[in-house]
Write a structure and sequence with these properties.
Number of strands: 14
Strand content: over 45%
Helix content: under 10%
Strand order of the largest sheet: 9-10-11-12-13-14
Order of helices and strands: EEEEEEEEEEEEEE
Number of helices: 0
Largest sheet: 6 strands, antiparallel
Structural class: mainly beta
Length: 181
């Protein structure tokens, strides 16, 4: 879920009764009470996709909806406006034929950030950002990282993640876009 200037947004997935596939959906609401479905897509797969949603930093009341299909080696990016008009793109770095539900997105300081390992079982922690175009992929940590979370703070963008039985974190400087060790 996220909030833009005039809308609340929810990105969701569902295994439809009587069906054989997962679907992904996006809903929006001007008041948090009445909701409209503005996007849907059949995953054409019984495997549960990862989903996330964040405000688009370059367009008021627009969002970026992310989903990761088990079968593919990319994360899909759906750029939506409030009416449901959209364009579709993708970013790389996901392992194919593997679940990736453990990724995190946040929009802060004029950029939408995403962090993710190549799949749920872990791998190098990868990061990139969108500010009209996607940045190159950067590895934050080369160990076997899992379940990242992002938090925007005045002093920097924080990422928290698990390696083995340890919880680690790194801080990104907003001005230099570099990560601490």
């Amino acid at each position: 879920m996220c909030k833009t200037e005039n809308y609340y947004w929810i990105g969701a997935k569902a295994y439809l009764a009587g069906g054989e596939d997962y679907w992904v959906f996006v809903f929006n609401s001007p008041d948090g009470k009445t909701w409209s479905q503005v996007y849907q897509n059949d995953m054409e797969s019984p495997n549960s996709p990862g989903v996330a949603i964040a405000p688009n930093p370059i367009a008021t009341d627009h969002v970026i909806f992310f989903y990761a299909r088990y079968e593919d080696n990319i994360i899909y990016t759906i750029y939506l406006d409030p009416s449901g008009s959209f364009t579709k793109g993708w970013i790389d770095g996901k392992l194919s034929n593997a679940y990736l539900t453990g990724f995190c997105v946040i929009t802060t300081m004029g950029k939408t950030h995403i962090v993710y390992p190549p799949y749920n079982a872990g791998g190098p922690l990868q990061w990139r950002y969108f500010d009209g175009t996607w940045s190159p992929l950067v590895e934050i940590d080369t160990d076997t990282c899992k379940t990242p979370s992002l938090a925007g703070a005045p002093g920097g963008l924080y990422v928290f993640y698990v390696v083995g039985s340890d919880i680690r974190y790194r801080i990104m400087d907003y001005d230099t876009l570099t990560w601490s060790n």
